[in-house]
Design brief:
There is one protein chain. This protein is of the alpha/beta class and 216 residues long. It has one domain: Glycosidases (TIM Barrel), CATH 3.20.20.80. 28% of the residues lie in helices and 22% in strands. The protein is built from six helices and eight strands, in the order βαβαβαβαβαβαββ. Helix 6 links the parallel strand 6 and strand 7. Helix 3 packs across helix 4, helix 4 packs across helix 5 and helix 5 crosses helix 6. The longest helix has 15 residues. It is globular.
Length: 216
Amino acid sequence: MIIDNDLGFKNFVQALTKNNVDTVGRYYCASDDPTAYKLISPTEAGQIAKAGIKLFTVFEAGSVDLSAGTSHANTAMNCAAAIGQPQGTAIYFGIEKSGGFTQNDIPQITTYFTNIKNTIAGKFDIGIYSNGTPCGALLKAGLVKYTWVAAASYLHDGTWDFYSSGLWTLAQVGPLDIPTDQLPSWQIAPNPPKWTIDVNFANGNFGSFMANPPMA
């Protein structure tokens, strides 16, 4: 099973093994970002690896800033180094907005991912997490290798057509934010967090990896 989660599993990795999770998606962001609570730590990454579970990672800032591709790429690479993400694996970059992005947004999104690609300079493969129109446009332009369709976007511009094309790499599926405190198999002692998880389907290789944190 492939899931993604925002709170993480530090000291509770047995919840993943108990539920047959083989790959978990976790977050990169700046340490001073409002969403820094999502940031995966080297300790968590090491615990996940020791349990034989793979990771995939997504950079997501608290607010979408399509002028910040260079700084976002540098931050993501610093996060990758901190948890020992092997070069040649994927870093996804998440861009979402209410109602989704349309064709009118593609020039700005193209610039954003061009700056990301130039900064990463082949060290990591690049993915996008968004609705269908940006996923399709950037894949066609060769700016991303991987595409992750957001579950909240199936009624947004281009998502159903892109999903139907079979060109996606990962597809997040509803319902979103499944509350694990209502699932008996996730009840582990002592006092686990009240996680919410999202479930994903894979369409071939999606750039996952086994972490090797320098300080683990």
